[in-house]
Design a protein that fits this description.
Elements (H helix, E strand, L loop, with lengths): L2 H4 L4 E4 L16 H10 L3 E5 L12 H4 L8 E5 L4 E5 L5 E6 L4 H22 L4 E3 L5 E5 L16 H11 L5 H15 L5 E4 L3 E5 L3 H13 L9 E5 L4 E3 L2 E2 L14 E4 L11 E3 L3 H15 L8
Parallel strand pairs: 1-2, 1-10, 2-3, 10-13, 13-14
Antiparallel strand pairs: 3-4, 4-5, 6-7, 7-9, 8-9, 11-12
Helix pairs in contact: 2-8, 4-6
Length: about 300
């Protein structure tokens, strides 16, 4: 058996789209039994995703996870904006959120629009902006490319966005675009975080790092779970260029030192040194979860 299948963990933090399921519209009949089996053993499971609750298992986790098990299930969503748990009746509850007031959100929107203006005015590059996110803007760099239900990085998208930037004579590629976005934010009096999944440049207050920090500090560490007892799974740990991290690489934070990180993507990109590239997509993650249910002994409940 592969070494990564043998070690028992007390907490598993994982991305949803492209890791636990193939796409948002995909059936969840394979992953839900895996979650329930581990939750029943007292393993803490934390879904870390940039999406909304309605896109996680079609918003039906309250019906799919028995109330007695959901006490060990948490969700860090919206690129750091929302952290959820479940009450004793199995109902979703907000534990913490990082949502600015309207005035602050409008400032973030102005930054997004300023980036759009710069690319159009100086480089004749058209972009679209998504303003409807809770604490960030999404700037579509590949306006002619539609992902459909596949919200994650797909083959060729990095080449596509690099080609667009080069065609419009934007020197420095994605790394420089991220630096430029942060400089524009500073000019507007804001300290914002800029990330990318190739298709979108996302600029806002938080990232997945903030979700991870919250759950480690407030729910895992107090439960006696050290970082070495945690496994992190995703499909976008890959570097998208020099100093340009994939969205899941935001989960690699100082507080998680000693944890194990796994990437299921088949994309031929460089991985951070902390990450084990196991490939295999969703099937590999499900195999891991099934192996955990066999090896992990029941954990005591601390909450």
């Amino acid at each position: 058996m592969e070494d990564y299948l043998k070690k028992p963990y007390k907490a598993i933090l994982f991305d949803w789209d492209g890791t636990a399921i193939v796409s948002r519209g995909a059936p969840v009949d394979q992953v839900i039994p895996c979650l329930n089996n581990l939750l029943e053993k007292g393993i803490k499971l934390v879904i870390i995703s940039g999406t909304t609750y309605n896109n996680i298992a079609h918003g039906q986790l309250e019906e799919l996870i028995p109330a007695k098990l959901s006490q060990n299930l948490f969700l860090g969503l919206g690129r750091g904006a929302f952290n959820y748990g479940f009450d004793k009746d199995g109902k979703l509850v907000m534990l913490h959120q990082a949502v600015p007031d309207t005035e602050e959100l409008l400032k973030i929107h102005k930054v997004g629009f300023a980036i759009h203006q710069l690319l159009l005015a100086d480089y004749n590059m058209l972009t679209d902006i998504v303003f409807s996110r809770p604490n960030y803007c999404k700037i579509d760099l590949l306006v002619a490319h539609e992902r459909g239900d596949h919200a994650y990085l797909t083959a060729g998208e990095l080449d596509m966005v690099n080609a667009v930037l080069e065609r419009h004579h934007f020197a420095g590629g994605m790394r420089q675009l991220i630096h430029t976005a942060q400089e524009i934010a500073e000019q507007h009096g804001l300290s914002l975080k800029a990330t990318t999944d190739a298709k979108y440049l996302e600029v806002g207050l938080t990232t997945k790092a903030d979700n991870v920090k919250y759950f480690l500090k407030n729910h895992l560490f107090p439960a006696g779970i050290a970082s070495r007892d945690c496994a992190f799974w995703g499909d976008e740990f890959t570097y998208l260029g020099p100093e340009v991290k994939g969205s899941d690489a935001e989960m690699i934070i100082a507080e998680a030192a000693g944890a194990d990180f796994f990437d299921v993507s088949a994309q031929p990109f460089q991985l951070p040194e902390e990450v084990n590239g196991v490939g295999g997509g969703v099937d590999r993650f499900l195999d891991f979860m099934k192996a955990q249910s066999l090896h992990v002994k029941n954990q005591p409940s601390y909450e």
